[in-house]
Amino acid sequence: MKAFIFDLYNTLIDVKTDEHCEKAWSPVVDFFRTRGIVTDSARLMSVFDGYWTRFNAKKRGEYQYPECDCVAQFVDIARSVGGKLSRTDAATALRIMRRASIERLRLFDGTLELLDELKRNGAGVYLLSNAQAAFTYDEIAECGLMGKFDGMLLSSEHGCRKPDPEFFRILFDKFAIDKNNAVMIGDDKFADGEGAAKVGIGYVWAGGGAAAHAREITELLK
What we know:
The protein is of the alpha/beta class and about 220 residues long. The protein is about 50% helix and about 15% strand. The protein contains nine helices and seven strands, in the order ββααααβαβαβαβαβα.
């Protein structure tokens, strides 16, 4: 069976976000205040960036491309500004920031038709995304993609991200995918393209969304 492995953001879902602006963080400041944490947007943005730097330096030996759980990141952010959050509250704060940061979130036209055509022709359809589970499952559902995949992996749940070969291997093993019949489809030539090359599978560049490359993708069914 052919296995079509899709990236999510800017491949199936057209998204634009800005996590480095007052608009994204001011509602988090308000939420923190309800939990007795007094801070400001500029400080939160600085701590947010600093966490990634420290995390990558600490975890680099475990994976080529480590991925953090941003819920844990928000627990750390609260601690860094003198407060304390439970994981439940940290997840809420993360979702608040994510929602406030979104400038555009919609399914690319033709996406559902492409996925349905692949499945009608007996192909396996999988999702391999550098994404945070705390909000990504909600956005998958919001965009009408829930139930469209034979398997999904999100990087925050596995500690590594594309183009790390281990992330691909986890997908192959979990869903018994024969990599000789697999192809990666994504808009990012580094994360998706190099990742595919590292594990020896095909790659279709999907700039402008996978549906814009539907003919090239469905030709691989033959």
